[in-house]
Design brief:
Elements: H1 4-15, H2 17-20, H3 24-57, H4 62-90, H5 92-110, H6 116-144, H7 150-158, H8 160-178, H9 181-191, H10 198-205, H11 210-216, H12 234-255, H13 258-264, H14 270-297, H15 300-320, H16 325-341, H17 346-353, H18 359-373, H19 376-385, H20 390-410
Helix pairs in contact: 3-4, 3-5, 3-6, 3-7, 3-8, 3-9, 3-10, 3-13, 4-5, 4-6, 4-18, 4-19, 5-6, 5-9, 5-10, 6-7, 6-18, 7-14, 7-17, 8-9, 8-14, 12-18, 12-19, 12-20, 13-14, 14-15, 14-16, 15-16, 15-20, 17-18, 19-20
Length: about 425
């Protein structure tokens, strides 16, 4: 019998067998999508770490602080839909380059803002690229992955979000310890220009997907970008959008306000809250990976509903239970695991729900319509927190959002293992 040491490498090869089945171009595409989404997360999450500082420096209310977060998320809905349509017109790879350049530039520009109004506008414009990157990358990786491995491949790209979030947390901890707050927050935004370097890699190394090229070569199979609202796709578009509304609503209620919750209601310092956030972020990465594999094993719908139910229970316990800071540190892992892991199934689910000719449009609209509707969540939490505690506001909004997820998932068909169709 093989020893434990011999079995471990074999199990690892089996676990990542889906990756080894990619050819050289496929692996480059995977890493381009992975890095693009991770850097997208880095640029967006920067604001959640500078928000407590700006509230003090600019004397903003929680409602105003939430509105800035909302502006990026709301406009990302438009950006995601436009990017999805363009991805079906000019290609997934070209669109990936454009969106990365866009969100990197406006994140950098945010560092020059001098008041609430300026940052509100700049972050709103940043949202166009933020929403578009997911639409381009998720479609691209979904089209090159085999049906039996699509959940794992797309889910692993989704896990890049936790790496970007973790990098933002690390940089924020360092910046605010080394530099004065009035300088550190600007430096955080300036660092956001770094993702632009990814463009050169994508341009030289990443090919367009064969599925897309085949559809473009067959004009008779093309459909209008507005056909996602036609009779045969409207049902899918509606409930696909509702699914994203709930998942994003729950996620933004938790993550946008979590640093502020830890510092104001739990009285933790930057260093102290950084440790708690680290546990949440590690949990989110494990959640993404676990959900990626479960979506191929249990199916897209079951996995999404399972994570939604778990997240709904966990957020109540995390924000409302009378627990010590030590227990809260421990609970951060399942909180991140469930609230983030739910998204791993979205990419493969949408890829399989829509035909190739409008796949970018369908995915871009549903995912980012949900993100746009959920954009009001940070501001809503801020508004409710003026009448109740911040923790209570978080769990009320997040709990309602996850109920929507479960209801929408029940209305959509299971698509696990479905071969992609062109029309």
């Amino acid at each position: 019998m093989p020893s434990d040491m011999e079995q471990a490498p074999a199990q690892g090869r089996k676990m990542f067998g889906w990756y080894r089945e990619f050819d050289g171009k496929g692996k480059k595409t995977f890493w381009a999508c992975f890095l693009g989404y991770g850097l997208d997360a880095f640029d967006l999450q920067i604001y959640s770490f500078v928000m407590p500082v700006l509230v003090g420096l600019w004397s903003m209310s929680n409602t105003q602080a939430g509105l800035i977060a909302t502006s990026a998320l709301a406009i990302s809905a438009l950006g995601g839909w436009l990017a999805g349509m363009l991805a079906d017109k000019i290609g997934r790879v070209r669109l990936l380059q454009i969106t990365v350049a866009w969100f990197a530039f406006f994140t950098f520009l945010s560092g020059f803002a001098n008041n609430f109004e300026q940052l509100l506008i700049i972050r709103g414009l940043q949202g166009l690229g933020f929403g578009g990157e997911w639409a381009a990358g998720a479609v691209l990786i979904g089209e090159i992955a085999k049906a039996q491995h699509r959940g794992k491949a797309v889910g692993m790209v989704q896990s890049a979000w936790s790496w970007g979030w973790g990098l933002a947390a690390l940089m924020a901890t360092l910046a605010f310890q080394i530099l004065p707050p009035e300088i550190a927050w600007r430096v955080m935004f300036f660092i956001g220009i770094l993702p632009a370097g990814l463009i050169f890699f994508v341009r030289r190394m990443v090919p367009e997907s064969d599925v897309y090229l085949q559809t473009q070569a067959a004009p008779g199979e093309r459909r209008s970008v507005f056909s996602i609202f036609s009779k045969d796709l409207l049902y899918t578009t509606f409930f696909g959008s509702l699914l994203a509304v709930g998942a994003h609503g729950g996620y933004y209620a938790i993550t946008t306000w979590l640093p502020t919750f830890l510092r104001t209601e739990r009285q933790l310092s930057n260093i102290g809250s950084g440790g708690y956030l680290a546990v949440v972020i590690v949990g989110s990465f494990v959640g993404y990976m676990t959900s990626a594999y479960l979506s191929d094993y249990l199916g897209r719908r079951r996995t999404i509903m399972l994570f939604a139910l778990g997240a709904m229970i966990m957020v109540v316990g995390y924000t409302q239970a009378d627990i010590s800071n030590g227990v809260m540190l421990f609970l951060g892992f399942p909180l991140g695991f469930l609230s983030s892991g739910i998204f791993s199934g979205f990419g493969p689910f949408y890829t399989e729900l829509f035909p190739t000719s409008v796949r970018g449009t369908g995915q871009g609209f549903c995912y980012n319509f949900g993100r746009g509707c959920a954009a009001g969540v940070p501001a809503l939490v801020g508004f409710i927190s003026a009448q109740a505690s911040l923790g209570k506001a978080i769990y009320i909004v997040a709990g309602c959002a996850y109920v929507i997820v479960i209801a929408a998932a029940l209305c959509l068909p299971e698509t696990r293992g479905r071969e992609l169709r062109s029309n």
